[in-house]
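Hypothesis: this fold can be encoded by more than one sequence.
Test: take the structure tokens below, design a sequence, compare later.
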């Protein structure tokens, strides 16, 4: 059972990297967009990402916690797993601190009602995803390291 949980967790960790990294890769081009185009992208292109990637991050956190319990007798793997779980928990916190407020605001805007400080919202949204990308890479790396330590134990 442990091997299946570990494999499933690694799969989730790999998927959890994809969305925030996609946002980071888009970042230079999105920062160059004018307001109406940026708004159109926010309201159309990213619709539906949350119901897919949000649960992936939550289940990655839950399976990392379960792996932490299973690895409690192997401190090197345990600490790496705790680091991964902390990464996922912080990713979720970053989403609610940075991205969700922007997502909520953007749904009410139109090209004609775009507020003058819309670039601040854009920057906040991008910072949230850049932070999530870094955290997801740390979590994935920690989980890979924990697997290596499992094999060495």
């Amino acid at each position: 059972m442990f091997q299946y949980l570990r494999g499933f967790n690694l799969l989730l960790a790999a998927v959890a990297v994809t969305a925030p990294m996609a946002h980071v890769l888009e970042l230079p081009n999105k920062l160059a967009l004018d307001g109406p185009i940026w708004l159109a992208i926010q309201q159309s292109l990213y619709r539906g990402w949350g119901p897919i990637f949000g649960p992936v991050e939550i289940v990655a956190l839950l399976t990392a916690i379960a792996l932490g319990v299973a690895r409690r007798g192997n401190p090197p793997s345990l600490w790496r797993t705790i680091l991964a779980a902390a990464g996922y928990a912080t990713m979720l916190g970053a989403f609610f601190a940075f991205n969700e407020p922007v997502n909520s605001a953007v749904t009410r805007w139109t090209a004609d009602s775009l507020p003058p400080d819309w670039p601040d919202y854009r920057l906040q949204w991008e910072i949230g995803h850049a932070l999530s990308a870094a955290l997801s890479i740390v979590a994935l790396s920690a989980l890979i390291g924990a697997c290596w330590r499992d094999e060495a134990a």
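The chain has a mean pLDDT of 94. Residues 2-152 form one domain.
Hypothesis status: open.
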